[in-house]
Amino acid sequence: MKHKLRTCMNGMLKKYFSLLLIITFSLVFNNTTIAQDTTASSKLRISILTCDAGEDLYTIWGHTAVRVVDSINNTDYVFNFGSFDFETPNFVAKFMKGDLMYFISATTYTNFLYEYEYTGRNVHEQELKLTTAEKEKWYQDLQVNMIGNNRFYLYNFIKDNCTTRIKDGLFKHTPINGYSIGIHSYREEVVSATYKGGLGWVGLGIDLLLGAVSDSTPNLYQEAFLPKLLYQKIALNPKLVLSTKDIQYNNKTKGKETSPITYLILVLVLYIFVSNWNSLITQRIARILDISLLFLFGVGGALVLYMSQFSLHDACHENYNLVWLHPLYLLAIPVYFISKKWTGYLGWLFYTATTVLMFTSHWIPQHFSKSVIVIMIIALCLQIRLIKRGRLAKYK
């Protein structure tokens, strides 16, 4: 009896021991599978690369690109939506009109960094914390963008550029919070970048070309339209950022912001002085300034007219600068020498339009910077000079 009981006990112990081995093996196997899944899910790493501004005009706003690291296939590519061909026929004309085709390109991460090391521009990397599905879907979309005509798109410097394309991809593939980065207008961000980059005169030209459309306030989705703005937008989502890395290639001290307003004020003072000093030399200088300003305002006005009425760049549309800055100044040049009487008429026409604009500017949906206002005052001085020239005809 005792022997049978011992045999039974031994059999039960063997069964329990076998069951314990099965459970232990299952747990180990499951843990190994989970570890393998985790490794598989981390085979892709996606980062946003934000590059500092350069010295050339087309680099003054910085750059944005996407880095995709595939550890399984041992690849490390950077996708760039800011590529264009300088050898495109009528390159400048196409860019001004807004029908210049930009395209996506890809290069290795090493080659990408080499360019920025060569030009001395810092690169800031934000590795994103995305799910496996989000990373794979975005990577697939980037690869599809590289096929045939999918690569090309019409560039728009506030609504469709190298940054907005990446921003759209980010917003499409992962949720992001609605925190605002505090953008007041497109104009403010576009123009301020040129001043900070030491291209104040270029900034003034862009300021004159931008219309009331650029003074609108972008919504939470639109506001990250420039590289540094997208960087800030992502930084406001700490749960989205896995890590941040700064690659320093530029050790130069940043120079002071340049503004043309000082030179414009000097021109204004000189113009007023020579206009009111009654001597042969000053009056000759004043007439030279008259013709020079008529030419500059006429050419500038023609450019403003083209960009506001015929260009596809909608940020230049609804430009109220056309009221005082227009091609009719070119018409005034031959009239200046042919008829003092008609010169005076044109002066009155220009003067009335400019003063009405200045008095009603508070209600106009377009911002006029201090530099632009100084140029308006110079235009007023020119117009008064034309009116006075017309009055001289009455006394002769």
Number of helices: 13
The run of helices and strands is HEEEHEHEHEHHHHEHHHHH
Strand-pairing-aware structural class: alpha+beta
Query: What is the alpha-carbon Rg in Å?
Result: 32 Å
- General form: elongated
Strand-helix topology:
Layout: H1 2-41, E1 44-51, E2 63-70, E3 75-83, H2 91-97, E4 101-108, H3 109-119, E5 123-128, H4 132-145, E6 152-154, H5 162-173, H6 186-196, H7 200-209, H8 227-235, E7 241-247, H9 261-276, H10 280-309, H11 328-338, H12 340-360, H13 370-394
Antiparallel strand pairs: 1-2, 1-5, 2-3, 3-4, 4-6, 5-7
Comma- or semicolon-separated keywords:
396 residues; alpha+beta; 7-stranded antiparallel sheet; 7 strands; 55% helix
What does this structure look like?
There is one protein chain. Helix 6 (186-196) packs antiparallel against helix 7 (200-209), helix 10 (280-309) packs antiparallel against helix 11 (328-338) and helix 10 (280-309) packs across helix 13 (370-394). It is elongated and about 90 Å long. It folds into three domains: 1-41; 44-183 and 218-247, Alpha-Beta Complex (endopeptidase fold (from Nostoc punctiforme)), CATH 3.90.1720; 261-394, no CATH class. A hairpin with a 4-residue loop joins strand 2 (63-70) and strand 3. It has a seven-stranded antiparallel beta sheet with strand order 6-4-3-2-1-5-7. It has 13 helices and seven strands. It is α+β, with helices and mostly antiparallel strands.
